[in-house]
UniProtKB/TrEMBL annotation:
GO terms for molecular function: methyltransferase activity. This is Methyltransferase. GO terms for biological process: methylation. It is an enzyme of class 2 (transferase). Pfam families: N6_N4_Mtase. The lineage of its organism: Bacteria, Bacillati, Actinomycetota, Actinomycetes, Kitasatosporales. It comes from Streptomyces demainii. InterPro entries: DNA_methylase_N4/N6, RM_Methyltransferase, SAM-dependent_MTases_sf. Residues 60-264 form the DNA methylase N-4/N-6 domain. Keywords: Methyltransferase, Transferase.
Amino acid sequence: MSLRTEAESPARPVASTAQGTLFHGDATVFLRALPERSVRLVVTSPWFTGPCEPSSQDPTSPAFGDWLDHYLAEMERVLLPDGSVVLETGGAWARDRPVRTVQHYAALSRLLERGDWYLLQEFYWYNPGLLEVNEEYEERRFNRLHDCVTTWFWLSRSPDAPADTRRVRGFQNHLTHPFGNFLALSDSWADQPYLEAAGERRSRADLDRFPVAAPLYFIRLLTEEGEHVVDPFAGIGSTALAAEKAGRRWSCNDISAAAISIAKQRIDTFRK
Ligand SMILES: C[S@@+](CC[C@H](N)C(=O)[O-])C[C@H]1O[C@@H](n2cnc3c(N)ncnc32)[C@H](O)[C@@H]1O
């Protein structure tokens, strides 16, 4: 399986502020261009199944673990030795039957067995605006419920990665409740006024995103002002906006021209 989608062409800078730069390109190429040991936090939501589309016969999809391992190795190079990676991921519906696949748990368990990363904590995000990929079962056949929780895995090479929970007490969002590791951080549609201002139309293609509140929560928990935050699969740029708000440096990237054009508009609007 090829891990490189757009060959070796460098990730192209498309917008920047005093704190960060937005790139358009492949995540591998983007990460390779960042200096070693320069990043405090990678917070990102990679493609949930990778290019593997697990089936009912292949619900743990080892190919997904290979795909994720590749990116974790690139992240490890740029991270400070006690830096953190926070991955939002979840199960998926098998492509052939109304059953679930657990490639994310399989990949995590394989990683932890190897002993070079620690799982510092997992978080559960209640996101009623989650992907509508199960509409076949939920809305037409009425035999499965809406899938509305995803997991965020906080990983580090160090069991002592710095964090300060006091910084997320009373988190600044009226929909957020301080329920420990259960996050009610508002849903995928919470930034809708922003997106409408940017001229975006609601469509299936733009559903797999997180609101600014999600990366902001982890940026506050795991970084100090001025530290460097990275999102290699940044979609429409919520991590960039969260880092701007929090006063952190940032580098964000996505391969999709459509997503990057929305991210660029959001960053430009934010700066005004
Ligand atoms: C789950 S979405 C992330 C959405 C993002 N968190 C947001 O709020 O918009 C996964 C993203 O990974 C991007 N992607 C997939 N393969 C990629 C690659 N090889 N390099 C960079 N981005 C990639 C997709 O374009 C998509 O925007």
